[in-house]
Specification:
This protein has 310 residues and is α/β, with parallel strands linked by helices. It has eight helices and 15 strands. The longest helix has 14 residues.
């Protein structure tokens, strides 16, 4: 089968087409014929040599978000059936990632696509939205409490804003000038300038500081001032500093939740309810994965770039 992979860590041009053995669904697994795979920052990290399991041999196939059709089910599978259109959260350290024509995945990582949604859009949901959900769950805020969000125009940050509003939180989010209307449309109560002055801008509105912060732009120490004493911060790429003032830092890793079927399916339901918005920036042929990685690294992409593996 065809896949887009790297054999040695490197830049975008390290990605190339390879031929891999065809996988089959084992017990408790379904095989998905992948139609679309979303390009995420985690994919660029894997391409550069991170997120490798000890003993894992090349080629390394990136991709954590896919959509497609179930074409084979293993023993014990009862929830999904052949021919069903699905989306999946893939853990590329366990096997090959999503830039593959075929994937054998745990049934728990695979759920139907939202009704009324096409396959390219469905491929963009699970990894970023699940990370956002885990962030909010870790912060454990109650309706009416305040949340600050950095990187709110991005996929992770945008989902944090929308999920937080669905949870009944008051959201203060950042945006560049050209993204203000986008972030406002996602539901942010206050949209503040992005950058080093974000914490001060938050304090001008909430003098004691917000109850929690989801740091999608990975500003870390630069934005801790926005959070009240004893509050919480959710970070998505680890934390090396000391937030101080009794602030709890929650490092969020989505890999361990890839088989939380109930949570994945709840995200599907929230798309159907209009609480989450799927945003596709562009769809490119799979062989243009290097270009997709270059565009992502260049910044300013709103929504997700999607690879077409059909």
């Amino acid at each position: 089968m065809r896949a887009i992979a790297v054999t040695e860590p490197g830049g975008p041009d390290a990605l190339h087409a390879v031929d891999l053995p065809e996988p089959h669904a084992g017990p408790g697994q379904v095989r998905v014929r992948v139609a679309y795979a979303t390009v995420n920052p985690t994919d660029t990290n894997l391409r550069e040599g991170r997120y490798r399991r000890e003993g894992q041999e090349p080629p390394f196939v990136p991709g954590m978000d896919v959509s497609g059709t179930v074409d084979e089910v293993g023993d014990g599978v009862t929830r999904l059936s052949v021919g069903e259109q699905v989306m999946a959260l893939v853990v590329p350290t366990l096997a090959h990632g999503g830039y593959s024509e075929l994937l054998a995945l745990p049934e728990g990582s695979v759920v139907p696509i939202p009704a009324g949604t096409d396959l390219p859009a469905a491929s963009t949901l699970l990894m970023n939205a699940m990370t956002a959900r885990l962030s909010l769950d870790a912060l454990a805020l109650s309706p009416g409490q305040t949340l600050a969000v950095t990187g709110a125009a991005g996929s992770y940050g945008g989902y944090v804003v929308q999920l937080a509003k669905a949870d009944g939180l008051t959201v203060l989010a950042d945006a560049k000038n050209e993204d203000v209307e986008l972030v406002r449309s996602l539901g942010a109560d206050q949209v503040l300038p992005r950058g080093s002055g974000f914490a001060e801008a938050v304090r001008a509105i909430v003098p004691d500081g917000v109850d929690g912060l989801a740091d999608g732009s990975v500003q870390q120490d630069e934005v801790t001032g926005a959070v009240r004493d004893g509050g919480g911060i959710a970070v998505i790429r680890g934390w090396k500093g000391d937030a101080g003032r009794g602030i709890t830092v929650h490092a969020i890793w989505v890999f361990g939740s890839a088989e939380d079927t109930a949570a994945l399916d709840a995200l599907r339901a929230q798309v159907e309810a209009g609480q989450l918005t799927l945003r596709v920036a562009d769809v490119l042929p799979a062989e243009q994965a290097p270009e997709a990685h270059r565009r992502l690294a260049g910044g300013g992409v709103r929504g997700r770039l999607v690879l077409d593996l059909t």
